[in-house]
Request: fold
Amino acid sequence: MTFTFCQLGTIRSPFCDLVDMPVQPKGAKDIYATLEIKEKYQEGLKDLDGFSHLYLIYYFHKIKEHKLSVVPFNDKTHTSRGVFSTRTPVHPNSIGLSVVELVKVEKNIVTIKGVDILDGTPILDIKPYIENFDKAEGDVRSGWMKASLQEVEQKRSDERFVQK
Reply:
C-alpha cells in the first residue's frame, strides 16, 4: 500500500543546522517560529486561535537513512534502543510530532512557541491539543527514559543523525 501526503506549508524556525538544536520542545520553550500555510489551506485555520497548544505533524526532510536501532540523545546508559521506543528522527517514515504553544494566527501565518524543528521542514498536519482528550492519567511510564526535566531541557543534538 502506498500513501501520499500533501504539504500544508513550511515551518520557519531559527534552526538552520541540525547540530546543537534542542532535541525536544521542552528544550526550546522560549523559541518562536512560524508556520507558513499555503493560502489554499488558510480556511482550515479558522477557530484555531481558541487553543493554547497544537500538535504539529511534519516530515523530517533532511533524513536520508532510516534505522531500527539507535542510541537516543537522552539515554544515560548509551544503550542501543529499538527506534519505536525513541523519538529520534530516523524512523522508517520520517514523521515528526511536537506539541507547541500557539501564539497567534494571522491569515495564513501561525506563530508558535516551543519549537525544536529545523527551518524549512514541511508541515503535514496541525491538530489542536485538547487536555480532556490528550492528557495521560493513571500509571504513566516513560520506559528506559530516565533523564530529568532539567536534563531534557538542556540536551542539544550532536552529529549522530546528521547526514555527511
